[in-house]
Amino acid sequence: MKRPVFLTVWLVLMSIGAVFSVYSYTVGSYAITQTFPDFPSWAITVYAGLSIIDVIAVAMLWMWKKMGFYLVVGFAVLAAVLNIMIMGGAGIVSTVIGFVGVGILYWAMKPVWGQFK
């Protein structure tokens, strides 16, 4: 199966972002709590778990699995709820960026959607 170049580039960017998120919420959690002292500690654990799911979802997309897309969508929705719940109005910006990313992924996958299983 031939993967379109843009989809490949987007998956590379998503892979880098997902791995960085896992790193940030696990190894770099101290920096988060220092920068945002009111950030709840339970949220770091939840974000770390969601980030691991995101890595799995992107890996599934590399393997031509539709379920990877559905996991990315679910991740974006849960992250949006958490962002708004924790950060209030400031969380709206990151929520919009997350949904734009999902939209770009959908647009990149649409021409080859039939190749995903």
The N- to C-terminal Cα distance equals 12 Å
- Major β-sheet profile: none
By oligomeric state, this entry counts as single chain
- Class inferred from helices and paired strands: mainly alpha
Mean pLDDT equals 92
Q: What fraction, in percent, of the residue positions are helical?
A: over 70%
**What pattern of helices and strands is seen along the backbone?**
HHHHH
How much beta, percentage-wise? under 5%
Which segments are poorly predicted (pLDDT under 50) over 5 or more consecutive residues?
none
Number of domains: 1
Instruction: Assign an overall shape.
Output: elongated
Number of helical elements: 5
The radius of gyration computed from the alpha-carbon positions, rounded to a whole number of angstroms, is: 15 Å
The number of strands is 0
Write the layout of secondary structure elements.
Elements: H1 5-26, H2 29-35, H3 41-62, H4 66-87, H5 90-109
Helix pairs in contact: 1-3, 1-5, 3-4, 4-5
